[in-house]
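User: Please predict the structure of the protein below. I'd like the answer in structure-token form so I can feed it into my own downstream comparison script.

Assistant: Understood. Taking the following sequence of 573 residues as input:
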Amino acid sequence: MGRLVFLFASSLLLMVAATTVSAATVEHSFYVKNFTVTRLCNRQVITAVNDSLPGPSLRVREGDKLIIHVFNKSPYNMTIHWHGVFQLLSAWADGPEMITQCAIRPGNKYTYKFRIINQEGTLFWHAHSSFLRATLHGAIIIRPRVRHSYPFPTPYREVPIVLGEWWNANVVDVETQALALGVGPNLSNAYTINGWPGDLYPCSQNQMYKHRVKQGKTYLLRIINAAVSSHLFYKIANHNVTVVAVDARYTNPYVTDVMVISPGQTVDVLLTANQPVGSYYMTANNYASGSGTAVGVPFNPTTTRGVIIYQGASSSTTPLMPVVPAFNDTPTAHKFFTELTSLVGGRHWVPVPLNVDHKMFVTVGTALDVCPPNVSCLGRPPVGAALSASMNNVSFVSPTSLSLLQAFFFNVGGVYTTDFPANPPVQFDYTNPSINLDPPLLFAPKGTRITKVKFNSTVEMVMQNTAIIGVENHPMHLHGFDFHVLAQGFGNFNPATDTPKYNLVNPQMRNTVSVPVGGWAVIRFVANNPGVWFMHCHFDGHMTIGLSTAFIVENGPTPDTTLPPPPTDLPQC
């Protein structure tokens, strides 16, 4: 099996050269600037790409090269992350600020260059600086190569569905205020479908996404959760859909009438217009796993909706409304998250590596920080401390003078340490709320502590949710790789009883996994991509940056497994 993994990893990287045979070059210019839009009765200045919300969709084929010129005409430092793209031998283009690059400063530009290798499906791009992701995002649609077909019937049309959040405020100010108070950010005012809030919100009767269909035709919906901090249920009245891919990985067909999609995740579904001619609402509403609160912050209980309109439907017909799941419907969410499986033998399918080189058991959750200078810490409990977050009791701190990737590549000391703990420094009853009575467990020291692994090594990580401050479902995203999700469950992970539950045959593959509320998830991946790769909770905000770490993957033994030098226009700090 070890030889199989080695051959796969080597062939994956050799594809970097081979893709030039049939690949195209797709080039775009992104102009990032402020512009004014009207939503929920208000005129609001937002930061967006090319004056659009969502931003432009990138439509490519597997093997294509992308060249994206980003011109920062906004007043904010920013970067763009190509969420889910492997970035094989192009880690300099990955985009997370201070991880692989310094920010693109106002008035400056940077050109991202990378190939789409061994990936098909739906991904997305978004800002990777502060709260700007709320309005700086768009779809990445990856079709098969020419003369390659989908592993399902060819759809009549393909439709991006981008779910988002809207604030009646400058989103950078929202984060700044939260930082000043030492609490979580203010709630969003609405959810959106393709940038529109829908008619359940004030002044929004004519601000609803509409999609027209022909009866009998099948459509491929490419659904993206680009929301900042909300897991979302998604439904279409009176229609089942068939899931065929998640996070740009083909799945066995899975029929359902409801989906739950965490921030950073994508789901591709086939929708057949097989109902009587009419109109049918689609809805998205919050899955708030923490029994109504997330670390003491109430959730947004509203629902956004768009509408599916059949050709020939009367304009006077009232659309049918689905029954939306309750905000705390964990059984429905867990069923969807756990029942998906990979399409074994499908294009780009990867067998589970059976020999593990580096095992990790990592607690993930919220934490507290001693109240920093110039922060009031007078908000939600406990007064006198600031909200934070951690992995294995380490609250991650980003570098300030040099990105992690630059420090690694040029062997600059003092920027990070490679002593991230592979196990919790203190073992405790992780999901028992009584742990909040033990103050020393609540405070996580800060540090830039990461993990270094050898090229082609196999990493297994058990992520254990904790009840510190409050339980919540955490969407954990790994840059640079997809991983097998071997198992998920509730309570404290028990190796004796839970390891036998691992799916080693056809587990789903993802780049973002939701660690269940008060539970755990196990992932496994082959570190076949040299560079520095961020792993973090895909909730945005100052407090969740602590729920992060990174992996350094050393260079392989050959030139085609070695990270090249940075581009000459890489932004400097």
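That's the full token string. Confidence is low (pLDDT under 50) at residues 1-20, 292-296.
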